[in-house]
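Format notes (please read before filing issues)

Several people have asked whether sequences and structure tokens are stored in separate files. They are not. Every record keeps both together, in the order shown below: the sequence lines, then the token lines. Line labels are part of the format and must not be stripped during preprocessing.
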Amino acid sequence: MPDTIKNFKQQLRREILLKRRALPVDFVTEGTGRISDFLLEWPVYKKAATVMIYLAMPDEPGTDAIIEKALADGKQVCVPLLRQEYGYMDAARIKGLDDLVIGRMSLKMPNPASCEIVDPADVDLIIVPGVAFDLNGNRLGMGAGYYDRFLEEMDEIFLLGLAWSFQVLPNVPSAEHDIKMQQLLTEDGFLPVRRVRM
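Then the structure lines:
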């Protein structure tokens, strides 16, 4: 990746994360509720038998209520499990939020000693976090490439980017290997992307 694009990504990441980390708790709580309501009525979610959902950081749209409802709806729920090898992750099945422990970087994660790894090909819908998105489906992540590596071989899985509305930008710099979302969801509702991954 050219240095100019890399530097622009780093600067954009810093700016968006500063804004996100300054969000009032009330905004996060209310916005999370609205996002959950939109998602749980979405036909793609209702049809999915196996859903992979990220475990939210405090300033991200929360996912605990979505996970609990998906489990109550009888869906198989997976969350990311970071491997020891930096930049790689797996889909790990959980049966409840009690299955989670505090892992690397003080992040919630499934217990590596007891969780069940799920074949990514068995997942119908992946709810993906990001620092920024655009309406072409491009995503700017945290920079470690976990999701790009995890998703690079998946052609049939529906990818939904979840973010606050200010994280959806006119243009997000992207490289050929970057994975595109098929739809976005913010506290204001769903945003279809102009170009889907083929």
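For reference, the curators noted about this record: The chain has one domain: 3-192. The chain has five helices and 13 strands.
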